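Subject — a protein and its fold
Fields — amino acid sequence, structure tokens
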Amino acid sequence: MIPAAGAADPHWWNDAEPIWITAEKNNKKSALYWWAGCEVEIKGAHPTICERQYYDGPPIKEVTTDFQERIDDFIEMFKYSKRFEDDRLSLVLMYYSSVDFNGHYNGPKSSDVKKALQDVDEILYKMQQKIREAHLQYDVNIMVVSDHGMTDTRANVVRHIDLKKYAPSIKHQMDYGGFSAIIPQPGMLNKLVQEISADKIEGLRIYKKEDLPEKYHLKGSSKTAPLILIAKQGYYIDR
């Protein structure tokens, strides 16, 4: 979840409403640590506390230590705010990067990912201990979520999907690898779909925006490109 260039532009956020903005609009205070987008003004609102994401790949030990320190911080805030109801936090979001980082760089089945998962287990155990010690076990709910999954691949067996022959019909290609979002040249969408479909490219699924499966929750967004290409496992869409 490393922030992309331009990710702090409210343009990319204002069509939706993140949960921390919903909380703030309802007079519920939120604190976000290393959470992409917490520094962005969305619909005129910010979280009460934002420690923006700075992560660029430090060792697992450093990330784990920093994360544990932040847990200590927000436990203290919960305890402190018991005495000052107006400052009480209702929502705390924390992003732990080691599992994602090691999955991308070393593979989801690597020993590095297993170590990162063990660290998560230890962090959650210590977090629950600290919550009980602070007598907050009936006031705090813990939820663990993930933004995506991963699949294992090998560089020597990945098959590449080359889109160069369609370049005259493509205005912009955004993203590559497992999927690609395509903005065709004006008036070229149907022609481009027909050309790619006619070639029956192995390992490639092609969708017009309006034909995307409901499970992706994308076709109703103004930010979704007119054409989406998705590679099957073991295939890679080239830039």
